[in-house]
Fold this protein.
Amino acid sequence: MSDLLPYRALVGGSTQGIGRAVAQLLAERGCGLTLLARHEDRLRETVAALPTPTGQVHDYLVADFDDPSHLAEVVQGYLATHPAGFHILVNNTGGPAGGPLLDAPVEALRLAFNQHVICNQLLAQAVVPAMRAAGFGRIINIVSTSVKVPLPGLGVSNTIRGAVASWAKTLANELGPHGITVNNVLPGATLTQRHHTLIEKKVAQTGQSAESIEADMLKTIPARRFGLAEEVAAAVAFLASPAAGYINGTSVPVDGGRTGAL
């Protein structure tokens, strides 16, 4: 399948987990990839492993979402020498640490807002001009099912994810007339490093075993299993395709049916 052959994508957080799975699948479908993350050694290794079924070229940019200004400089520098820009932007970065919202220091909220809302805004501002010129664009945000139903013990994450969803809906309304869609993919409990980190924290807090905690989680998922990063990537790849041109401004859970909202 090469339905993304003409396009180039910028994918954040793409050296592990969902971001890496997204990069892998987009490359398999013919897309040229620019990976964006903070560890150059992992970026180099990931780029080298990406498939090139149509002879497309992949590369990477090194930037840290903790430093939005530097991130913007890096991407703008790339675009100065690659004026064709990007047709697809996948906003993806690690989620905030867990814990009750009232216990969270203000700085944790500020940092999370910068990592997610501010970085998303700066990246969109950088890539949209070329999308407008091409008459085609896809902005896809990897968020969380907490956009629909806040999750216990993830106070900062719930707060910031909701802000991202509102940002995305507003942008979708503004960019729709230009052939650019903006959508959110909401992963549920997915077998990534973040899943394991959250489980480890609950083990430390409760004294329960990881197996017991996971068993309780599975009871809330109609599919009775955890998701795979590749399954989230499949939703992203569809939304990135020309076939999804009339899907705009929405949030799509990929959660095995767990989210208790329509």
